[in-house]
Design goal:
The chain is an alpha+beta fold. It contains ten helices and twelve strands. The protein is about 25% helix and about 20% strand. The strands form three sheets. It has a seven-stranded antiparallel β-sheet. The chain has a three-stranded antiparallel β-sheet with strand order 6-11-8, with helices on one face. Strand 3 (about 85-90) and strand 4 form a beta hairpin. It starts with 19 loop residues before the first strand and ends in a 40-residue tail after the last strand. The structure holds ligand 6CS and fe (iii) ion. Fe (iii) ion binds next to loops.
């Protein structure tokens, strides 16, 4: 398959291809878009260097408790359990992920437009933004399987047609993230390198990849080289903690061998100037709950009521 002229990040190729330096800035904002926001210049520089930031007390415990009550309700709700956006653990009944969570729940929808979150998004993306994808990864105790090493951007470029690296994930811990229940692992600095992956993408790949990802996993040599250079970080923290990570930062997580669930909420913000094209792998677009193409208007901050204190 010939590479498209607008494909700056060819991947899912027939043979191993060398990694190369990303072509996009990490922090896209300049001027007052960069300086007038909650992230300090030190934090912006750290995000530029590492590809992620960690804040341990972003949501207050009472707010997190309300979100967690919603999760319990979803686990009992047959219509949600049957929906296409709900993924169960391989060979199990336990929920692995629920996609499109901000369209299921007003509480989650409100949080996507929290003024502080949107102000940080503007500093990082340098523009207005919309939700490309939202999900909760439940990672239940004992049965929550891991997620193999990958760059989200590599998948969103190949399978959703995301043209450039101008998207960011906000991951909020809804349960404590400990060293024992499969916390998110990230390779600092890996966001600066694009690692093309081998393998043609089958149609409807998402129907298996969301349970266990086979394609878009960098080879061990490339992974080892990046880890040798920068190590691995596994931020832990109480429920309510926030990890902001750049769309191309390599991340993974281990299976949960503890009794304690590791349930994290993910909001993915994409710049309104980076709207999805046709998927670069050549397949038909994935469903909207994975790569949103229909509701791409710029998100406006909530009114003065602070979404993080939703009643
Ligand atoms: O395919 C996707 O969009 C999903 N897959 C992974 C492993 N991370 C990003 C996203 O949730
Ligand atoms: Fe991911």
């Amino acid at each position: 398959m010939d590479t498209r002229t607008d494909d700056f990040y060819p991947t899912r190729l027939e043979r191993p291809t060398p990694s190369f330096e990303r072509l996009d800035p990490v922090v896209h904002s300049t001027g007052t878009d960069r300086t007038d926001g909650p992230l300090s210049e030190t934090e912006l520089a750290q995000y530029e260097r590492d590809g992620f930031l960690v804040f341990n007390r972003f949501l207050d415990p009472s707010t997190v408790r309300r979100f967690r009550e919603d999760l319990r309700a979803y686990e009992e709700d047959d219509s949600i359990l049957r929906s296409e956006g709900t993924i169960t653990e391989p060979g199990k009944q336990e929920i692995r992920s629920i996609f499109g969570i901000h369209e299921l729940s007003d509480r989650f929808d409100q949080l996507t437009r929290d003024p502080k979150i949107l102000a940080m998004v503007r500093q990082l993306l340098g523009s207005d933004a919309y939700i490309h994808q939202s999900r909760i990864n439940f990672k239940p105790g004992f049965h929550g399987k891991g997620f193999d090493w990958h760059s989200d951007f590599e998948t969103w470029h190949a399978e959703d047609g995301m043209p450039r690296m101008r998207a960011v994930s906000f991951s909020i811990a809804l349960t404590d993230n400990t060293p024992f229940n499969g916390p998110l692992m990230l390779i600092p600095g890996s966001h600066k390198t694009f690692v093309p992956c081998v393998g043609r993408t089958p149609e409807d790949n998402y129907q298996s990849s969301l349970k266990k990802q086979e394609l878009g996993v960098p080879n061990e040599q490339d992974l080892a080289a990046l880890v040798d250079r920068n190590g691995i970080k596994a931020p832990t923290g109480p429920a309510g903690s926030l990890i902001i990570f750049e769309c191309n930062t390599l991340h993974a997580s281990n299976a949960n061998m503890s009794p304690w669930p590791r349930s994290n909420l993910f909001f993915v913000y994409n710049s309104v100037e980076n709207q999805l094209e046709a998927p670069y792998c050549g397949n038909k677009p994935r469903p909207d709950f994975l790569g949103n193409r229909t509701n791409t208007r710029a998100l406006m901050p909530n009114d003065s009521r602070d979404a993080r204190k939703t009643g």
